[in-house]
Amino acid sequence: MTFKYKRKLIVAFISALANISILLAENPITVSPSGSPCSPDNLNSVDGEKCVVNKTLLTVTILTNRTEVSDIKELMGPELSGRCSGKIKLSRNESFFTDGPGNYSLESKCTWLIDGEGLLTRLYVDDFATECSWDHLYIYDGDSVHSNLLAVISGVIEKDNTTRKPMEIQGSNDKMLVHFYSDLAFNMSGFNISYKVGGCPRGGKSIECSGEGMCIDGVCTCNAFRKGLACEESICPNNCSTNGFCDPENHKCICKEEFAGNDCSQWKEMGYFEEISVHHVEGLARASASGIVSDSKIYIVGGYSFTDSPFVYAYNILNNSWTPYSTSGMDQPTSRHGHTVILYDETLIIFGGMTKDGAITNEIWGLNLTSMIWKQLVVQKTVCSAKLCGPLASVGHTMTLVNDKAYIIFGYSPVYGYLNTVQEYSIQNQEWTIVQTSGALIKGGFGHSGIHDVLSGRIFIYGGYISETSGTFILSNKVFSYDPKDRTWTLMTPSIYHRFHHVASVSNGLMLVFGGNAHNESEHSPHSKCCSASFSAYDLICDTWVEMEAPSASHMMPGIGLARNSHLVVQSPMPDDKLFRQIAYFFGGFDGQFKSDLFRFVPGECDSKVTKESCLTYYPGLKCVWNKSQKRCVPLSVATVEGTEKCLIQTRNLTEACSTITTCPTCLHTSFGCVWCTNNCQYGKCNGTKAVNRVDQCDLGDASTCRLLHTCTACHTELYCRWEQDQRCYTYIRKYENRVEKIHLDADEQICDVPCSERTTCSNCTQGHCMWCSSLQRCVDKNGYIPSFPFGTCREWTTSELKCKHPVEGSICGSYRTCDQCREDPGCGWCDDGTGTGIGRCMDGGLSGPMIEKNTIWEVDSDKCPLERWYFTSCPVCQCNGHSYCEPGTSECKQPCRNLTEGPNCQTCVQGYFGNPVNGGNCTACSCNGHGTQCHRDTGRCFCTTKGIIGDKCDRCDTTNQYQGDPASPSGSCFYMLAIDYQFTFNLSKKEDRFYTQINFKNTPPKTDLDVDFMIISSIEAKMNISYRTGKGEEKFIVENETFTVNKARFLRSEYSFGNEENTTFYVYVYGFNSPLWIQVVNIFIRYDMCCFSFLSFSLPSSFTLFLGLSFYSLYSLSYFFSLFRFIKVICGKREKE
Length: 1138
What we know:
Elements: H1 3-26, E1 50-54, E2 59-63, H2 72-80, E3 87-90, E4 94-98, E5 109-115, E6 121-129, E7 136-141, E8 148-153, E9 156-157, E10 167-170, E11 175-181, E12 190-197, E13 213-216, E14 219-222, E15 226-227, E16 233-234, E17 244-247, E18 252-255, E19 259-260, E20 266-267, E21 272-275, E22 290-294, E23 297-301, E24 312-316, E25 321-325, E26 336-337, E27 340-344, E28 347-351, E29 354-355, E30 364-368, E31 373-376, E32 381-383, E33 398-402, E34 405-409, E35 412-413, E36 417-418, E37 422-426, E38 431-434, E39 438-439, E40 445-446, E41 449-453, E42 458-462, E43 465-467, E44 473-475, E45 479-483, E46 488-491, E47 503-507, E48 510-516, E49 532-539, E50 544-547, E51 568-573, E52 582-587, E53 598-602, H3 612-616, E54 624-627, E55 632-635, E56 644-645, H4 654-659, H5 664-667, E57 674-677, E58 680-683, H6 712-715, E59 721-723, E60 729-731, E61 733-736, E62 739-742, H7 762-766, E63 770-773, E64 778-781, H8 785-788, E65 797-798, H9 819-824, E66 828-832, E67 840-846, E68 849-854, E69 857-860, E70 870-871, E71 901-902, ...
Parallel strand pairs: 3-5, 32-38, 39-46, 75-81, 79-81, 80-86
Antiparallel strand pairs: 1-2, 4-12, 5-11, 6-9, 6-10, 6-12, 7-8, 7-11, 13-14, 15-16, 17-18, 19-20, 21-53, 22-23, 23-24, 24-25, 26-29, 27-28, 28-30, 30-31, 33-34, 34-37, 35-36, 37-38, 40-43, 41-42, 42-45, 43-44, 45-46, 47-48, 48-49, 49-50, 51-52, 52-53, 54-55, 54-56, 57-58, 59-60, 61-62, 63-64, ...
Helix pairs in contact: 1-2
Keywords: Disulfide bond, EGF-like domain, Glycoprotein, Kelch repeat, Laminin EGF-like domain, Membrane, Repeat, Signal, Transmembrane, Transmembrane helix
Protein name: Attractin
Signal peptide: 1-25
């Protein structure tokens, strides 16, 4: 055993012990009193209080038992029961909870409710690791899921991380509901969250107020020379880095002219980050908003947050203030996120996005910034591409203004999936065009960034969440440039970072990229994060990337967590700047909580570099170039066209870059100088084959865009594409007169299922390539989860119809039949009917009681259930499902149960009956046509007792296996037809054979000159009847109720009618046995002139034969053979004597 493995076991063992201790601390167990005080060795009761263990200190404390849990499994909690499940009420003033030891289980679901009893609770999220964007922890400001959300956390949070800092969450309610849900894919180490009722901020430290102040009523009073909510910051950090002096009166550093930052550690000439301090603005926090700058104001439009807030805010750069705007107009856009905004002629234009109810729109709105009046803009003319016509509804696209045209690139559509389209909107002409682009082939995606480079005239697209196939995606690191003039795409140099929901801005020849979601599903390391604070630059002139110094806590106040995604960036000119620099302002975003902070990046200067090499590798937030004649390093913005060097010689491996390209058109449209060589891409020239240098020389199938379309509806927007059963889009081509051409398909060949977004029930949703979000009652494409729920707002989902929960009276809660099922759902509670028998109803609610929705607002409605009969985190003690009562003072149901039920909780039907007796349900007698006494207790499907009878009600014969008859008629049954000269084997040792107690055979001798000798052998004692019927006569019995293991009989042709119209049929009924067993039947037909026979053998080996092996069975078969031989010899001997 390796040291690493041993260490893991030791850590797991200690973790298990620690989890036991905290569960004991949360849910104290009464132990036998002995009068001894509490100690680690003695957990006995003291003065009516209970001894408990503290998980952190592994010490013992005295606590009064306030837990609601009612059984030992619940008392120990989900950790010790082996999985995360149910609801637990935490009543201690200070403690912590976890998902359990080790990695959390797949498809976990558990809920904790903290009751502060009048005081606010503060959560401290120090260590957290779940699958990014899929496994979430939900924190509600109240006692139900209908309370306001405070946070939705996923991904990795590390205690020592300076960018995504440990979270502290406090609501405005004295109760807090915490719910965790994980899906069926990856699982990680989970979380350990501490809390304190009335607690103060810790600032990422292990003690309140960072040990630098005093906690008074949940607020830190800091020591001298400390500041911050948690006293986590020195008023003058790092002694102002000796680059300034401390101003104790205003609690900040006063930096020297050439320095900036919270601690004066940043050289201004290198570019610097700066936090903009403004007072807290209610409702400002948001993500996936969009913004523009006009007249020294930053306009923030829309965005998503957990609470309603004004649609438009403006930040005044000059006076450092925020203002919510009240807009007017007959119609106004509804709240939305993932939309885009541009400014055109003092009109703010927004397009697309997702509204609060999940609908993705194609609306175009204009806001006049002078009158602040909204107007919906109407497209007067539309130019389609094949069958695709705009405006296409989308979310997560980019919109870039070039002259008087807006270019809407990519995005996610509820109908077509991930778009790879360019939509061109002519604002002056109000004309909308779906552009037919050329050049590099591009797959659809969303969450990318887009900027317009004025110098080249091109639009640069970077990153994004890209559709690879109909069921898979990747995060992109690619850069593409789009030329609006010739409508051509070109592949540029990729970044080392794959990301989406980042932002990009232009700064004098550079594209600056900050933040985003960098998580790939194939990565599990801390380096693959939901929220990033990385800062990089793409050189638009030299087609190269460079890593920039990311902002840190020393640059700004430590309380601001810099890692984020879904934020926005806008640019404003630096006042009176001769270098024409643009300041980038970053706002908002999401890191589990919505952010409202505003900070900026100010580009530096170039003139400190005195050599060409240092100049061309220097990136102070703008592009520096070398003036050859003056031998100076200057910004690109003031450089002359001639006499300037802009780039060093490229050192990139272009051969490798070309070799990764797999399509001919893309190969011919790169910045690398690639050529297409028959079926691969090479740099510069081909080796041994003729190079393809033009797209019109590419193979027609290889140059087709059909392969880029990953939904049926998108595929069928092209006339020559068709969607096939393997979930792929194919190009249809043909050879015609020595040329290859595409085939235009008929409309009836291009039919698709209903899009997921148009399916309204779980059943029809999960029957398609869709997933159903049960908490929101919405259907989305399986590959559309991330764009549909970017902030984890879907609390639970499924792709299986078997897991569909069907609403009762409009509520999912009504579908749960038992209190235990109800308690698993964080949004449901149980209303006991008051009889004390366990009957009740599951309904929407929280700890305070059942709830009802009125005008989109949820409120407690005690009329639905009296509060004394309401259960949210526990269940009534007595759970007899209405079929019994509990013994006084116990949870044990009095036996026997009534109403044909049985079980500890009277939860199942007795044998011979079926149904769902839980919660007062009924049991119904099995209906098996007299061929069975038992049936499946849930479905009523009969367990037939006669071999060969099948059907839910034992009403059919197994004709496939040669059984005939009519078991549904009175006294009817099924018989196996005995054939001549064949041997058969029947195996009744299987589990499903355990109900058989009878098997029937019949045979009609076909020849007039044969007598029939009959022999039957059973491995165990059984009973037998033998009868016959001649023609249509009555059935007459020869042998009745005979117990046997071996039986021999002879049927003479002289006594029975064989081989004519009145032919005789013999019936053999074997019954009264229990499987496993085997039965062997032999029919021997005897001629008087020779000893000639054939036989038929039925072999039903017992289960013990299977276990003892072939040798035993072979010996037994040999014994049988000799018995049979002696039987035949006797018969033949008699014939010879005759």
